[in-house]
Amino acid sequence: MPYLTAAVVLVALLSGFNLLLTLGLIRRLRQVEGAAGAGHSGPPLALRPGSSTGEFTAVTLDGETVSHESVTGLVGFFSAGCEPCHKLLPRFAEHARVLGRESALAVVAGDDPQAVEALAPVARVVVEDYDGPVAGAFQNTWTPAVYLLGDDRRVVAAGGRMEDVFAAAPRA
């Protein structure tokens, strides 16, 4: 019986210690997130401002060939079954409409006719697999992801929301 009591006390002490460590980690994580900018929920993007995309060639739904040399402006990555992607679609389309179809490229991964229908009137649309050539050139593994490319084809801004991209873009 004394061994059982000692074991229960030991487990209770370890559980309490674990709880304190967890609370400390949560507190520390909130401090780090606050220092990095409250409310920023950026996706894990490999290309950051100043980065160049890799080389790619793809064909849009209209049969136009696009490549790393012909794409500037707004580039968005969307995927089928992605609720945040569908929430982003109207804002992306709005910006694409303002920039003009030649300055907007939408990359849709998977079968998502609704996204294609929303994007095709305002942007050049490439439908490819999740590891397609455009996603590979951007090293993009996350959706939604939005990039703004300058005339030199370097990333000016990147993020998971339109606010991330246009808040980070330098003003002309």
UniProtKB/TrEMBL annotation:
Provide this UniProt record's keywords sorted from A to Z: Isomerase, Membrane, Transmembrane, Transmembrane helix
Taxonomy, superkingdom: Bacteria
Q: Locate the Thioredoxin domain: which residues? A: 47-172
Give a yes or no for keyword Membrane in this entry. yes
Name of the protein described by the UniProt record: Thiol-disulfide isomerase/thioredoxin
Q: Which GO terms label this protein's molecular function in UniProt? A: isomerase activity
Which InterPro entries does this UniProt record tie to the protein? Thioredoxin-like_sf, Thioredoxin_CS, Thioredoxin_domain
